[in-house]
Design goal:
eleven-stranded mixed β-sheet, 19 strands, 13 helices, alpha/beta, four-stranded mixed β-sheet
Amino acid sequence: MLSLIQKIKKLITFPKRSWKTILFFREYIAWIDEIRTDKTQFVPFTEQPYERATDDTKVFAFYLPQFHPIPENDSAYGKGFTEWTNVAAAVPQFIGHYQPKLPYDLGFYNILQSGVMERQVEIAQAYGVYGFCFYYYWFSGKKVLEKPLEYFLHSNIDFHFHFCWANENWSRQWDGGNKEVILEQSFHESDADLFFDDILPFVKDKRYEKIGERPILVVYNPQMFDKDVFLRFARRLNELAILNGIPGFYLMSTNRNSFVSFKEYGFEGAVDFPPNTLWPYCRNNPIRQTHPYNPISVLEIHDYLIQKQHLQDVDYSVFKSCLPGWDNTPRRRYTGAQCILVSEEDFRMWLTDIIQWTKVHHSSENQYIYINAWNEWAEGAILEPSIRYGYKNLEILKECLEFCRT
């Protein structure tokens, strides 16, 4: 093995072999410096907070309750691990690659610290976010990342919310797959009673979002479950709801892995979930591999939006979604990562399109859109303010909501 001194000498002498390599490293270093120093695109906190109009579409942002240490992550990754560990370690992999994405306003917060969720809601409300769709991690009675949700439940935070059951395996690959599984999602029909008992305090809360008095419950990946078993599970959930004075659940699923069997599984409809909805487009269009040493799949989706592929008709009810960007290099450690470039103009177009589509295709009480996500920092899908751009993504959201008023 090379010693540290030998590695340094090799690094120093390597660029002499090619003027292209010298140019690349010079431009790369200049880009890193620009990330740190360029504040020209920073948008400060709004001086004109959003005021909801009666016909405004309700915007829910997916919310990851991850940013605090838990025993499972301590065991898998080392004591004290949180998503910030991966986020802070990221570096640009090509010129123009914005990494690391670093948080502004709350900094590297511990989500359980008093005042953190309160400030998040204050920011969200100032820009028109109607509520959070909290990921709910539940494994046949084993709950993970539940403490932030319990904190919210017992707080006086005035904000709407509902759950998306993140029902995949918890794995070191961050993909819900079967490799390096930390917690397995073993699903049983008999789980219904225990699952209902665990979520009952939340769905009875006046802040829990309901459609026609039925609490919204999103299932992230129903393909994890046998259809007949899930149907019996859902039937039992509704029976228990009625026994507790709730007229059943408004069950929905994401279209993860191109899932379209919503009616067969008994769902009311779907929640679009990009980037999953973008992968068919990716397969049919060339994806640039930009880095010569650690290839990253990079996609520009401007043409996808221009072609209005995100507004294609389907034969089921769907709530549209969008994302302000995607870049999972912090999680994937630059192996098999994907980076979706979403410009300011793209995000604005996407938001405007799905808000206007929703006003046409849904009744006034069912006008919802979703954004992936509020705080997926390790996947580059963030509404929360960043050091480089400030509150820009949130400002775009506010402007789009106001622009689309009738």
